[in-house]
Design goal:
With 492 residues, the protein is an alpha/beta fold. It has helices spanning 15-24, 73-83, 94-97, 106-120, 174-183, 192-208, 230-250, 264-267, 297-300, 307-331, 349-363, 389-394, and strands at residues 49-50, 53-57, 87-92, 125-130, 214-218, 257-260, 288-290, 336-337, 366-369, 398-402, 405-412, 417-423, 432-435, 445-451, 461-466, 471-476, 484-491.
């Protein structure tokens, strides 16, 4: 769950604390096993599957008086030059979009648009994320611990919100719970709040409809149901908020993808989600993306990614993957991992990030690391943006766009070698594009493509190397619809 402070996620220290949070996730039905394999993909205007690889930008926006991240245009270029990312989950806040009821701040949206342009001019896909933690700043204004909802939309009924050593436990404070209950209208006292939130999304969509860099809208960061939890929350008020917000967005924007998350408590750890299939009123196929977060429970309990702790975390990751696949199949949705991360100074931290990159590669899904700040979690060792240990882990070969339906992706850093399996589809045009880091591929790459059951080199290709962007484009001479191909890229 996303933090409210720069020190993001202190460990849970007792079984009692863990139990308190697990109780809040009760009522979610167990998932059934499903066969590995993707359900759908986010595609570009040429029909190619897009694989998104990047960062959340950024935790700093939650503390900034203007609700904007620390980055400059030069910083965006530096990120690309350092790690070759093509995706950003860009944080905005309801409180900044709608500081007064029905009054939308055009200057704020213009400032967000300026940052979207910085990314777009460098080929990034931008996901606009309506972020919240602990509902909003007015829940506990003296501690500045929350963010998201505006003051006018915050109703705690005077109930207390005590400080906690672990920030997540503030969700269970009476005042925080009441603010969420009013928002979800489980109290029956404030039915207007969800409507206001959906209308705010309509204002955002009106501003960004047609922007070529904006790939989607993340409707709510890490939803929390207050006193209503589990399946009753996800299939009830959360699904209703998603339906209302989607309807408002579609009034002006029929093409951008809608990203949805299940409840954070439990689902982030690997528990199944009960989020129901959601309708999309746009013409044609729905554009709904499942965008869960991953923070394995053993790590929240203080286990490092070493020894027996590593085994426990791997088991939690396996459960998370299984349940994500089940939910994505139910939703008929592509998968993008919206958040994962940890303090990079911890033992085994780099190996854990590599593990999550391998998992999402195996799922052929996108991912956004939390976050690109220079706070110990991110890729920068200091405010001068000197690359830290995370930067080397994140700077790895990956396919940016695949000319067909991806079947599997694997990266072997020892080779190094990137392997992309995909099935050719009718109506897809353009080459497969892969990013190749300078470390391991200093002179670019050489591609070899085989057809299912064929010999290596049997498939003719056209290759183009863009040394400035470090992108190798590989087109097949005569792809056959329904045939599975394996693209292998090694150093030139």
């Amino acid at each position: 769950m996303t933090p409210t402070t720069r020190t993001r996620r202190p460990a849970l220290r007792t079984a009692a604390v863990a139990a308190a949070l697990v109780l809040a996730a009760a009522g979610v039905a167990a998932a059934t096993r499903t066969e590995p394999g993707p359900v759908r993909y986010i595609t570009d205007d040429r029909g190619r599957a897009l694989l998104l690889h990047g960062f959340n930008t950024s935790g700093s926006a939650k503390d900034d008086p203007d609700s904007l991240p620390w980055i400059t245009e030069e910083d965006v270029q530096h990120e690309y030059d350092t790690m070759g990312t093509n995706f950003v989950r860009l944080l905005i806040q309801w409180s900044a979009v709608e500081p007064e009821p029905g009054a939308y701040d055009g200057a704020y949206l213009d400032a967000v648009a300026e940052r979207v342009d910085w990314y777009g001019e460098r080929g990034y896909h931008v996901l606009i994320d309506m972020h919240q933690d602990l509902y909003g700043a007015a829940v506990s204004p003296e501690r500045h611990s929350g963010n998201g909802a505006p003051d006018w939309a915050t109703h705690t009924d005077g109930l207390p919100v005590a400080e906690q050593d672990m920030w997540e436990l503030v969700y269970l404070e009476p005042g925080t719970m009441r603010a969420f209950d009013h928002f979800w209208n489980t109290t029956g006292d404030h039915p207007e709040l969800m409507e206001r939130y959906a209308d705010a999304w309509g204002a955002v969509a009106e501003r960004f409809a047609g922007h070529p860099a904006v790939i989607g809208y993340d409707l709510m960061n890490e939803p929390f149901g207050g006193s209503l939890q589990g399946a009753a929350f996800e299939s009830g008020p959360l699904a209703e908020l998603y339906r209302r917000s989607t309807e408002r967005i579609r009034r002006t924007d029929a093409d951008t993808w809608i990203f949805v998350e299940g409840q954070a408590v439990g689902v982030n750890w690997g528990a199944p989600s009960a989020l129901p299939r959601l309708d999309d009123p746009r013409p044609g196929e729905p554009r709904i993306v499942y965008a869960p977060h991953a923070y394995p429970l053993p790590m929240d309990l203080g286990r490092a990614y070493t020894g027996s702790g590593r085994d426990q975390v791997d088991a939690a990751i396996a459960l998370w993957e299984q349940n994500v696949r089940v939910t994505a199949e139910r939703l008929g949705a592509p998968v993008v991992l919206g958040e994962f991360g940890l303090d990079m100074s911890g033992e085994g931290a780099g190996e854990y990030v590599e593990r999550m990159l391998d998992v999402t590669d195996g799922m052929a899904s996108g991912r956004a690391y939390w976050s690109n700040d220079h706070d110990g979690w991110g890729p920068w060792a200091d405010e001068d943006l000197t690359p830290g240990p995370l930067a080397a882990v994140m700077d790895r070969a990956y396919p940016r766009a695949v000319a067909g339906e991806p079947v599997g992706i694997a990266y072997d850093p020892e080779g190094p070698e990137l392997t992309v399996r995909f099935t050719a589809e009718e109506g897809v045009s353009g080459p497969t594009e892969v990013y190749l880091p300078e470390d391991g591929f200093p002179g670019g790459g050489e591609a070899a493509v085989t057809a299912e059951g064929g010999a290596e080199g049997a498939v003719d290709t056209a290759e183009e190397w863009d040394g400035e962007r470090r992108v190798l484009s590989v087109g097949l001479a005569s792809p056959e619809t329904g045939t599975e191909y394996t693209l292998s890229v090694r150093p030139a």
